[in-house]
Amino acid sequence: MTMDLAPGHDEETRLAALAVLAQQVRELMDAVVLTEADEDEVTSVTAELVALTERLNDARRERPLMPEFAPDGTFRHLGNAVTGACNPHALPLVIEHTPEGSQADLEFRPTHEGPPNSVHGGVSAMILDHLLGHAVATSGRAGMTGTLTIRYRQPVPYGRPVVGTAATTRAEGRKTWADGTISLPDGTPLVEATGLFITPSLWVEAASD
Ligand SMILES: CCCCCCCCCC(=O)SCCNC(=O)CCNC(=O)[C@H](O)C(C)(C)COP(=O)(O)OP(=O)(O)OC[C@H]1O[C@@H](n2cnc3c(N)ncnc32)[C@H](O)[C@@H]1OP(=O)(O)O
Predict the structure, then answer these.
(1) Does 161 lie in the same domain as 99?
(2) How far is the CA of 84 from the centre of ligand 1 (A)?
(3) What are the protein's UniProt keywords (predicted)?
(4) Residues 104, 61: Cα–Cα separation, whole Å
(5) How many CB atoms lie within 10 A of CB 196?
(6) Tens digit of pLDDT for each residue in 58-88?
């Protein structure tokens, strides 16, 4: 089912409300991984969540929100798993375009736990994949990740600020390479990444049609 809005409904207001819902679901997910509630309480909460899930599914889209330009002209992808304000899976990452490349202040959550008390390596890799891809895209050479190499130097904490950065390093034909890091605010590197991004032949063919 598609989400047809009632006439006069302000879509931006609805999306803002959806972003608040997504944030509440992030809080809910942390509550789930941290709760010590007893079995009856857990079962009771689950029943309420089943009902809430059904209410949302009464007006279900076929797919998450697509990339688009917001009314103020900024690019956004509200359904994205890394940056989407309307996707509870996303932190969401807010990426700044800097003279060097891309940067984001971020704070992981208890739901990102991998090894006890630190962030799962796959989650760090996902964030770096996106940051590198953003740096490549904003250099004007958008592409898909071909390879991503990660070096885990120190465990990444959750519940405290860390910084993600990325920048392109070289380009050759449809290939662009980028490096990035997740670091402590004092610059101590925790995770380093190098990626190869390839502008798909399909995109090049579509652009020349
Ligand atoms: C502002 C917005 C910011 C958005 C940021 C988003 C960041 C998120 C990025 C992602 O996570 S993307 C999702 C993960 N990646 C994928 O799903 C990619 C899946 N693979 C493909 O779609 C295609 O294989 C690919 C586009 C990578 C390449 O297809 P092509 O048909 O364009 O490649 P082609 O076969 O013509 O090969 C071109 C060159 O690339 C090389 N190549 C292809 N795939 C490769 C690969 N995977 N790794 C390394 N090299 C590769 C290939 O050998 C060749 O090298 P040479 O020119 O030197 O001969």
Answers:
(1) yes
(2) 23
(3) Apoptosis, Cell membrane, Cell projection, Cytoplasm, Fatty acid metabolism, Hydrolase, Lipid metabolism, Membrane, Transit peptide
(4) 30
(5) 18
(6) 999 999 999 999 999 999 999 999 999 999 9
